[in-house]
Fold these 4 entries.
Entry 1:
Amino acid sequence: MVHFDLRRLMTLSLLLNEVVTNSVKHAFERGKRGTISVRLEQETKERFLLTVQDDGPGLAKDSSKGLGLASCKIWLRSLVARSAFRVSRA
């Protein structure tokens, strides 16, 4: 079992809310079904890997300029001293 302090847990919940909401709003055409998966893996005692995937078409080219992505990067930096944010097309 993994335990997080309240500050990290709140930040993680904001991050997850933004990413999953973005997938629901933008990944799937209206009326179409899709899949969103969220995984949190403990790689070492102090290192975790959070993966959020959907089976939508991928990010639009101009989506990296949005407020949501900028907020996610800020939340990631506040969670850990070092973070990586990678967007990829599966």
Entry 2:
Amino acid sequence: MAGCADTSNVSRAFVTPSKYDHLECKQLTSGLANMNSLIEKTDGLYDKGGVGIGAVVYGPDLIRLKGERTRLEEAIAAKNCPPE
């Protein structure tokens, strides 16, 4: 999504701040790795679809997934989890 506006603040709005509070560090870091993989795959589909189709079909999912990743990163930082 090169050249697109920063959506980090918007994407966080789609995810409940406390969604990951109950998870332990291992679950959080594993979830983050899975989320990064899913974002990479979705980003590739977005790029293949082009600006029109990619944005309409994959844009909302990509924004939501990036919000999930941000919340996971925040939970990892709040719990001082060691890197996996």
Entry 3:
Amino acid sequence: MSFDWLPIATAHGSAESVAAKYPTGSTVQVYFNPRKPSVAVLEHVPKEKIWLNTLVFIVMTALCLILLVIVLTGNSGNGVG
């Protein structure tokens, strides 16, 4: 488990759906960093999944940038111009 980077709920609906899983007064399992007990989460994401998501994001961003350059320069790469 990694505490270096954790996804957060950014949309109001997303935050509400996460909060709905944990009603007030219920017992929950908490994951915490033993070196920094103030760093705790209710849901953890395996480190492997974080790296995979990051890699997919980087690849998709690179492809979008390449396509943007092709469209803006008018270069289709077919040698006809």
Entry 4:
Amino acid sequence: MGRHQGRGLVEHGAAIEHDVGLAEPADGREAHEPQTYDWLHLEVERLSSLERQILNLRYGSVDGVTLKTASECIGIPRDRVKRIERRALNKLRQRVGPMLLPA
């Protein structure tokens, strides 16, 4: 997956904010500002290519795709897609949580 393909994940930030549990950035910027998500792009890039591919399929567009469709596109069972998706979202929560709520 290319460097900019993960960007689809945050173009529709509301879905990611909901699932990842994101709040407004700690520096006071508005969450809807495109440059606000630069820090999130860096964290998405740290995920494995499979994790990024799954999140991009599931959240990278306005409609996203179902677990079933994602599993068919990637060629792995639906329950495995669900586990990988959950793991990737948890990684993002752990990594961005401290950035959003500094001590």
